[in-house]
Amino acid sequence: MAKTVTKSIVCQSQADAGALNVAIPARVLSALRSAKEAFFALCVQTGKEVLATLMEQERASLCGAKGVPNPERRALRGGHTTSRVTLGGRRIEIRRPRARNVQGAEESLPSFAWAANRDPLNAHTLDAIAVGISTRRYARSLDALPEQVVQCSTSKSAVSRRFVALSCERLKAWLSRSLEKLDLPVLMIDAIHFRSHIMLIALGIDTEGRKHVLGMRQGATENTAVVRELIADLIERGLNAEAPRLIVIDGARALRRAITECFGDKVAVQRCLSTGFEFRVILRISAGHPRNDAAGLIDAGLGGSRFEGVDLYRWHSDTESVGRGAYRR
To answer: Which residues constitute the domain of residue 280?
Structure first.
């Protein structure tokens, strides 16, 4: 006699607050999975048929009814061709009707242009990579398609190329954003090492203490041309070169020279005591002064009241005197 394989699942009874064990045969669970796959396959097939109907209607509006002569028609039928449309995180192949105008150029069908849009594919790719799905496992993270549906754009190399292109596009947009609405009384410029590369970073701090990465260039602070190009880009994007500002840098002479050329004597330049983006130089200036006077001391050197009411420093609560306070990152 054949044995029935069962699996136990735990569900909550409405009448009893306790857990209720229910044995469901494995073949029933398999049927449920099959039903899910069958429903998804039905949705895909229905969507393809609806899209095919819409495209055929649009071609008929351009070419007229098939087999009926019409001297005023704007286009001629051109048969069918294999094309690709977006389905979530992949693209699938469909049969697309073609139409050509009287000059012989291809006519675009609005429904196909909408279905072939890559925005959903790009968004799904970025979301998948962001949550930790590797390019090698990307295809397995998608719902299985029916066997007769041909999919593409899910291989490791295709996902990698798409992610690199999308990330480069977003990085360019981010590095070209406007800076006009930012009030940045403090600007820090330094170089960081990323593997075998040296990246020059410009970091701005607004009047509420929030940090903003403003721009970057590949090169060292000892390269005047690179530093000048970075600062010129910030000014072109809306950074006010006439406003009083504290600029914290390292000891590179090329960096100091480029700042003088771009800002003149309108800014206060302070050499940082350590590499990295820290405010130890400000602590040195404010050592021995009350906490509320620290911002005013820096502000006095800039000739304004841009730091009024702003707490730029966090001091240890257990220090014996305010002058011994330490800035904590």
So the answer is: 186-324
